[in-house]
Design goal:
The protein is an alpha/beta fold. About 25% of the residues lie in helices and about 30% in strands.
Length: about 300
């Protein structure tokens, strides 16, 4: 069988692409390596998706998957290992099968780089977050810490300073890697405190985050700060290395594609967090899925 659209990744972008593809009369298949829904499934409460006041990430994902499947999308749990072109067809290679597709949408998402410290995994979703924009409003009037020194960490600290009583910005170096102007703005905020040359040794708490233990990198001294939330912003890792022979990636490994979701590969599109973009949110992932699917449909019409 030859599918019209092969979608690599079963997160919000990928599943939205399947919905739009199926509604356009195209046969789609979603190939997902681990679990449908992607990172949003770890969120206990989603309150920033238009039209839905509150829903768990897992329920949101299952509703979207059910919608795609009811429309006729096929799904397979399999690890994609590459893509090869063959007589105008894109053959998606996996560990167990090959899937011939007329077009491909890369929707592989990203994984957040973790600190790998005690308490981090156990308290993820219970005070540990990797998305200040998603979860910041839950910490209104509370004390939180942002871990990181790049633009994302600085932007997260600025965003959280509008909600939280106190924001500690913890960075392992003496100077931030992010924009100087942004750092200067944060210096002027009364409720933001810089904690430099410090690393997180442990995140403290039984059922919810209660604080962090930091180590001063210069003298080795430890200190504990009482907190309700820890926002980790130390980088994102795209999952695109197996596609380097079919599309161009930027230096960080993201697929080069603008808002039109077009890549450098003929008949290959990119949607969601895996592509080069400034805003990575649930709504932008859904938007990308729609844009990429419609672009794939237009491409197919030119080939007929």
């Amino acid at each position: 069988m030859i599918y019209d659209i092969g979608i690599i990744g079963g997160g919000t972008a990928g599943m939205t692409a399947a919905v739009y593809g199926q509604r356009a009369g195209k046969q789609t298949i979603i190939l997902e390596a681990m679990n449908y829904g992607g990172q949003i499934t770890a969120s206990s409460c989603v309150e920033n998706y238009p039209g839905i006041e509150s829903i768990s990430g897992a329920e949101f994902s299952m509703k979207l998957l059910d919608q795609a499947v009811r429309l006729g999308a096929e799904t397979e749990l399999d690890q994609v290992t590459g893509i090869r072109g063959e007589n105008g067809i894109q053959v998606i290679q996996t560990t167990g099968e090959e899937y011939a597709c007329r077009t491909v949408i890369l929707a592989t998402g990203v994984t957040h780089r973790h600190l790998d410290v005690e308490g981090e995994e156990r308290l993820t979703g219970a005070g540990v977050s990797y998305c200040a924009t998603c979860d910041g409003a839950f910490f209104r009037g509370k004390d939180v810490a942002v871990i990181g020194g790049g633009n994302t960490a600085l932007q997260d600290a600025e965003f959280l300073s509008n909600y939280c009583r106190k924001v500690y910005l913890v960075h392992r170096r003496d100077e931030f890697r992010g924009e100087t102007g942004l750092a200067e703005r944060l210096k002027k905020k009364e409720n933001v405190e810089f904690v430099l040359s410090a690393v997180v040794k442990k995140i403290v708490g039984e059922n919810m985050v209660e604080g962090v233990v930091l180590e001063n990198r210069k003298n080795g001294e430890e200190m504990e700060i009482a907190l309700s939330g820890v926002f980790i912003a130390v980088g994102q890792i795209p999952q695109n290395q197996v596609f380097t022979d079919v599309v161009q990636l930027d230096e960080a490994g993201f697929v080069k594609a603008d808002e039109d979701c077009l890549t450098t590969g003929d008949g290959i599109f990119a949607a969601g967090d895996c592509r080069t973009k400034k805003v990575r949110q649930l709504t932008t992932a859904a938007a990308d899925g729609a844009v990429a699917a419609l672009a794939a449909c237009r491409y197919l019409s030119t080939q007929e």
